[in-house]
Amino acid sequence: MLDVTPTPLQRLLRERRPGYTLAAPFYLSPEVFEADMEIIFGRHWIYVGVEPDVPEAGDVMVVEIGKTSVAIVRDDDNAIRAFHNVCRHRGARLVHDEKSTVGNLVCRYHSWTYDLTGNLIHAEHMGPDFKKSCHGLKPVHIRSLAGLLFICLADQPPADFDEMAAKLGPYIEPHNVRDTKVAFQKDIIEPGNWKLTMENNRECYHCGANHPELTVPLFAYGFGFAPEEMDEHDRANAERYGCLLKTRHGEWEAEGLPSKEIDELDTMITGFRTERLPLDGEGESHTLDTKAACKRLLGNLTSAKLGGLSVWTQPNSWHHFLGDHIVTFSVLPLDTERSLLRTKWLVHKDAVEGVDYDLANLTGVWEATNDQDSELVGICQQGVASPAYEPGPYSPHTEMLVEKFCNWYVGRMAAHLGR
């Protein structure tokens, strides 16, 4: 008789209570972590960087996803390609630095040499029967969404990338990612499971008490509230914000800037969400005075007062597109209890540091916020490890996107493992 006894992970997925946090093993179990790496990070589209990470022919960027190393390269025809960062001879790592520039990809072990399209072009002493054409680099699926780079390690990636790109592309294109440069990148290791990092990002319930810098440019009302708990003053401000949002959306869309919410976070395999939100104060950028951080605006934009376009993609990214700069975030799991948060600040490619922008002002709000969030993720990791931990309820007013992240995660795991 066929054994249909569910595995421990299948039982966890079946028992997940909607509207509540995940059970402790989802954050603590090495077996769950391995399944996450195989199913979520091994079979879905993962955000890894931007086209300006490899701006010129021969530029290479290396991304590590678990045990897999991927080299992303711009070839001589200006196409961006991705390959497993493994020599086809004896498996040595080909590219060792995160960023480099090469003529060809040369393995330092035995000098096997590959061109920028992945073809093996030089391999000495292999005999007359050796066929170089059979030993090219193994390709990795890579797609660009208006300049944002996504890779998929699976043989057959999810087929809905084009649908996501068709919906998100018009929102992102006015900011012209391809015509920017990476002004600064900062990597921090958060002391928590990658899902805790993502859950923390998907809500601003915690913002008022923990992010004094971030809540200067951002309206708290843009991330949910409980109207029945507000006093007259707060209710009036929330109503004012609602009117402002409706007015700004109409104005921005009339200017050719798509702004209204699209939410497919838990309804598609490649889940995503976007919306352009007003900013407080001067309303130009994510800075402490809410004014533009860079004098050189992006693309063909003529005003910095365009709010902040927020973009979220499952399973590992969020992004903020302003009139003057862009901030992108990616989360890559390191082990059960550590995650790499990689943040990039992009400005117009011709902007000059010290002339058009001050780096400390450009990065200040999100550097502070990232450090604060890292600490919060750490105390959550400590908490879920306690025997006293049990799943708690999400706020229906402010943690809707956390619930959608968990819905997406549980759904994708169950789709591959069966319930």
From TrEMBL:
PROSITE patterns registered for this protein in UniProt: RIESKE
Pfam families per record: Rieske (PF00355), Ring_hydroxyl_A (PF00848)
InterPro entries, per database record: Rieske_2Fe-2S, Rieske_2Fe-2S_sf, Ring_hydroxy_dOase_asu_C_dom, Rng_hydr_dOase-A
Keyword line: 2Fe-2S, Iron, Iron-sulfur, Metal-binding, Oxidoreductase
Cofactor: Fe cation
Every Rieske domain range: 45-151
EC numbers on record: 1.14.12.12
Molecular function in Gene Ontology: 2 iron, 2 sulfur cluster binding; iron ion binding; naphthalene 1,2-dioxygenase activity
Superkingdom in the source lineage: Bacteria
Record's protein name: Iron-sulphur Rieske protein
